[in-house]
Amino acid sequence: MTCFRYFLAAVLLTAALARAQEVRTWTSARGATLEASFVSESFGQVVLQRPDGEQMRIRLNQLSSADQAYVGQQRTGSPAASAGTSEPGEAEAPPALEELLGSRLENAKGHRVSPATLAGKKIGLYFSASWCPPCRKFTPMLIEAYNQLQAEGKPFEVVLVTHDRDKASMRNYMKSHDMPWLAVPFGRKPIDALKEKYAVAGIPKLVIINDAGETLSTDARGPVMTQGAAAYESW
User: Is the CB of residue 147 less than 8 Å from the CB of residue 29?
Assistant: First the structure.
């Protein structure tokens, strides 16, 4: 029996190590990063393991959208997407979203994120800029509503479509406000195409779409200002 117990322990340890073998950069919804490997996820709790062997727990909805998608793929055992626009461990991006937003997005730290993370979500396209006073007033309101929806587990994401004049200004705007969401990278063609598609004559402007690219609201800024996170239910 003793030998059997040692054998069973070795098997379980090997299985655990097999699941926790890929050390990668994890990003929280607020932009903090951590080097760790995925161990398991259960009931919204994700177990990660640092390179030194220490394990930690974090709520799934406290991770970035990209990492939530990665965990989902590990949990279901789905194969990684084929080479192309998606990151390893992520599903392919909905074609309509890739057509609208391009082949990649980025977070406030400039890390690449696949549009695949937007699958199954309502998406707020946030047309904004650092030089715009009304934008600087509305951004904290949107962040508050966004964080509440994330805490409630609602399938919602925001994508910044910048009106800034240079990459540094856009990046500083995202960092200074601690924006927890994604952005179309500065200078990419989808930015001008989105401005034209949604007839953006002034900012800030918040347009809500679904992952099929269908428009749910062309003027979501007002409801967010008056209702906060509750505006989600009207989209």
Answer: yes
pLDDT at 3: 53
Is-cis flag, bond preceding 79, omega within 30? no
| 3-class secondary-structure state, position 211 | coil
Q: What is the CATH number of the domain that holds 34?
A: 2.30.30.700
Backbone angles phi, psi at 119, to 5 degrees: -60, 135
Domain residues for the domain of 41 are 2-63
Spacing of C-alpha 98 from chain mean position: 15
Structure tokens belonging to residue 13: 């340890």
In a domain, 38, yes or no: yes
pLDDT at position 88, please? 43
Confidence of residue 213 (pLDDT cuts 50, 70, 90): very high
101 and 12 share one domain: no
